[in-house]
What does this fold into?
Amino acid sequence: MGFFWRKKVQEPPMWHVPEYDGDWEGAANSLPPAGDPPDGTAPLPTKRRRFRWIRWGLMALSLLFLFTIIWLIVTAPLGRALEPLDDPAMLFVSVEGQPIARHGQIKDEPVDVAQLPAHVSGAFVAIEDKRFRQHWGVDPVGIGRAAWTNAQAGGIRQGGSTITQQLAKTSFLSSERSMKRKAQEAIIALWLESWLTKDEILSRYLSSIYFGDGVYGLRAASRHYFDSEPDGLQLGQAAMLAGMVKAPSRLAPTRDLEAARERSKLVLAAMADQQMISEEQRAAARMARPVGQGARVPTGTYFADWVSPYAAQMVGADYGLATVPTTLDADLQRLAVRSVINAPIGDAQIGFVAMRPTGEVVAMVGGRSYKKSPFNRATQAKRQPGSAFKTIVYLAALRSGWSPDDIIEDAPVSIDGWSPSNSDGRFRGPITLREAFARSSNAATVRLAEKVGRDRIIRTARELGIQSDLTDSPSLSLGTSGIPLIELTAAYAAIYSGRYPVDVTGLAADRDGENVGRLLASQARMDSDEVWAPMLDLLYAAANDGTGRRAALRTPTFGKTGTTQENRDAVFIGFAGNLVVGVWVGHDDNASLGNISGGNAPAQVFRSFMAGALQIDGARGPRLPRRFGAPPPPPPQLPPVNESDNPMERIVREIEKIFS
It folds into this structure.
């Protein structure tokens, strides 16, 4: 290092310059002619310049090293490896207290090597850094051995990083592979060795390394895989945990037990070779098997992914696994999954959400397979709801003074050059709002929307809690704006409860009895009975005698179907008892569903779920008007209605008429 030593430089011999005798041409003090001296030595200025650059380069490196050490002393906390992770680990439990998912990464309290059995800490030293007690953070012998092994193998088979270097990397650096990062790692390792004892370094290392399954630190790994404290680990268990450090995601016993056991044998052999255990102990060691309960809890579900950002705001960084009570009902969730699996939807995707009228989500399915696609179609997908949006249009009309028995013209209409058609191609002339809603007439709905005003429809949607962008165009009333299923289902929940907006949640902490009462007290009464009861009347007609009659139950059932252009989306949203349910069916690439419409598959999923849920749930919903509180009355007598909005079925019926 340049400023710690200075080499004495021998000056080159001076050139012999004869005295001026008056014979030279030029001034008396002229220099000798340019060129090399007679003896062939290099010119003095060039040699001095080269030495000067070398000296300044060494000084710069020395200063950089010194500044790095000072920076580490000032800014890098020695205890960082012992601190809990920023991402809290959460165990979500259902309303029954059953574990349903684990989210985040687990890190438990630090371990103290002095309190551990010798075979536990020895297993890690034997396989990761057998010269740990001899080197000073960087092991030249280990680096040379790894380089020789890799050269013979023709690739990277062995690493030369010490335990101290691994601690430096995991605690202070990124996982980037570069010479710069390796240099930083070596400097920090030397600094750690100068400030900490070997036991302190090993304790921090064991408390922070990754063990797969989202588990960090020896204590968390011992509990997760073996349901044991670190000081109670058997020899085979310690060897398995030490063996996982090389490739934790691949060698976790919950992923590949045989590979984990083969690696354990290498650890035991290394311990015996270094005389940490005897050959008899190595031979007698039992191969470990994971016994922890945590390994069987899924680390991700549609519901857990949706609720975890909200839960993380409530759970601060801490050691261990925080238990988070949710509103999910395990029995209803199983029923929802069964209903979705049995849905006649071919290779289409599906989104399902069930909630209380006050917004507590009790079941959620975001697709056919979370493993294949964690994208949640119940909360993340913004798809067109089609005619399911008409509920908001008719509610705005009822607020404006219309009634279900008022007449609207079901006839061709043209607005700004756009002319909607009915799904069955027929126009029935003057019909009541009840019939127009039950039949899901496009022409009548667009005409009604223009009379009511699109601004009132958008305002009604906002009051019901819909935050998605709504396009102010003539097609607004036909549900052409993308809305997440959970958002539209919450709007139906607001209609059912008679209060708005509904605050949707999946956390039980938000919804104890006192909070629910306070929530209802803070919500505004949406409408008077003169508006609320007629809206239920329309929804009852649609679900029992209209396009959604396949969803009808023996208890009062309310709902609305929705099918978008070319059958790209099929929707049914309805409620009964104390549950509000939304079902969406479609393809992720927006392809046509063929014969599937809101009135068949989604309505059938709703009915399949609700038939079992009402028996399991046994809870009563909001107080209904007297007409719906008694056994279901005969539905309004309407002319027969098509079961599907699909044009192909209309063509088939016309052909049948010809041949009949």
Q: What stands out?
A: DSSP finds 23 helices and 16 strands in the chain. Residues 226 and 291 are 5 Å apart (CA to CA).
